[in-house]
Amino acid sequence: MVFKTWGVVFKTSSKYDLVICDIDGCMSPESHALINVAGITAVAEHNQQAVAQKDRPIVTLCSGRPIGFVECMCRLIQNSLVPCIGENGVWLWNPSDNVFECDSAITDEHFEMVSEARKLIRDRYGALGVVQQPGKSASVALYHPDTEYLRSILPELGEEFQRRGWPIRVSMTWFYINCDLEHISKGTAIDRLLAQTGISQERIAGIGDTMGDRYIADRVAWFGCPANAKDEIKQRANYVSGRDEVEGVMDILARLTNEQAEELQP
Ligand SMILES: [Mg+2]
């Protein structure tokens, strides 16, 4: 198997070189609420400093959103160096050379299976208002304005996939059902990212707000949550901010800097 080497080595004078941050519920709202532009600008200024001075970790993104959305957010936060992750691990996008990389463990059979799953969901739930999020290639995300209704179909969906022998994992975020290939996750994508960039696990921190982010928590040396995070994932955190979403992210980044300052004191 041929592994592409990005040739990116980002080394800082900080305790951590990289922060891997979820998007929905962290960098921006999972709902259709407006994005906090001032907050995004603050993260962008943090990253500009990180790139210019290499004195703090650079922030990259790890999300279930379609990779085009993640690419856009990555550019907005001024991460010009370290790949970001989209579609719950299907894709990496590298801002340093504009290369998209789909996980090579996804075969033609997997793509066909996902396509069949799409048709099944369309036939069974399309007329009931269940919409498939556009822009995904090897997974399916489902939305319905009535989140309780959406939640109610999750068990039968999982059972149907199982009955057909499709290795598809079904999970719920705040407003979406995610149907992802079992062997692909945020975790497998972080493994790819680390292998390609040479950044070691003990120099990485993570931020997340739902149990889908346990894959981030499993692979970082330090994990933080914004105040709006689910209780279950807060139990995995080294620090829970008192602030929500991107303001929580900025608080967590400040906390990481302060921790280092305290450790450096004699
Ligand atoms: Mg989230």
The CATH topology of the largest domain turns out to be Rossmann fold
Please give the CATH architecture of the largest domain: 3-Layer(aba) Sandwich
| Number of helices, counting only DSSP H or I runs of 4 residues or more | 8
Helix percent band: 25-40%
Silhouette: globular
List keywords for this structure.
single chain; 266 residues; alpha/beta; Rossmann fold; Hypothetical Protein Ta0175, Chain: A, domain 2; 2 domains; 5-stranded parallel sheet; 4-stranded antiparallel sheet; 8 helices; 12 strands; globular; disordered N terminus; binds magnesium ion
Describe the fold and architecture.
The protein has 266 residues and is an alpha/beta fold. The chain folds into two domains: 18-103 and 184-264, HAD superfamily/HAD-like (Rossmann fold), CATH 3.40.50.1000; 108-181, Alpha-Beta Complex (Hypothetical Protein Ta0175, Chain: A, domain 2). It is built from eight helices and twelve strands. It has helices at 37-53, 67-76, 108-125, 147-163, 186-197, 214-217, 231-234, 245-264; strands at 18-21, 58-61, 84-86, 91-94, 99-102, 131-132, 139-143, 168-172, 176-181, 204-207, 222-225, 239-240. Strand 8 and strand 9 (176-181) form a beta hairpin.
Compose a concise summary of this entry.
The chain is α/β, with parallel strands linked by helices. Helices cover 38% and strands 18% of the residues.
List the helices and strands and how they pair.
Layout: E1 18-21, H1 37-53, E2 58-61, H2 67-76, E3 84-86, E4 91-94, E5 99-102, H3 108-125, E6 131-132, E7 139-143, H4 147-163, E8 168-172, E9 176-181, H5 186-197, E10 204-207, H6 214-217, E11 222-225, H7 231-234, E12 239-240, H8 245-264
Parallel strand pairs: 1-2, 1-10, 10-11, 11-12
Antiparallel strand pairs: 3-4, 4-5, 6-7, 7-9, 8-9
